[in-house]
Amino acid sequence: MTATTGRRERKKAQTRQALADAAMQLFTERGYDNVGVREVAEAADVSLSTLFKHFPSKESLVFDLDADVEADLVASVRDRPSGQPVMHALRDYLMRSRTARSDDPGIVAFHRLIDSTPALREYAHQMLLRHESALAAAIAEATGKPDGDLTAAGLAHFALESSKVASTREDPPRALRELFDLLEHGWGTDAAGQ
Q1: Does residue 142 fall inside a structural domain?
Q2: CB 108 within 8 A of CB 48
Q3: I need a surface site. Which of 123, 146, 166, 193 has the fewest CB within 10 A?
Q4: The whole model's pTM is what?
Q5: How many domains does the chain fold into?
């Protein structure tokens, strides 16, 4: 029974990966808005119903690693080096993920696709916000705060929103550092124009 279950799970994972790969290839070649889900299913050699068993929407085809992103965010807090503040761990994780974007041609194409497609930008933003509660729970646990703590929720929200704000700047890593510096050190009188 275990061999059958293992084989079945491997087959599902292969089908899911084939769909995600076909989608990215078609979307980057022809543009997201110029490709239908039926074309993606055909390119992956599966039925349309099989596509929707793996991906509930066209947008989700682009973000097949959604669960991995949440796991990585939570791990950045839970698995941080001893003595490292949670805020620094989050900043460093977001910096690493931003840097990784600029090195890999596939990742560059992925982000170019998202940046050029309003529906995907909004989906990416909503995806990050869906991870907010898991991240807030990890922050609360790591800092000894009660579940649902306002400050943990605020830090989770700020960290996720800062990534979006920084991505709109000419130098996103620098912008991200500045945003976290603002959180850590406050607004100050010079920044307030006084």
Answers
A1: yes
A2: no
A3: 193
A4: 0.70
A5: 2
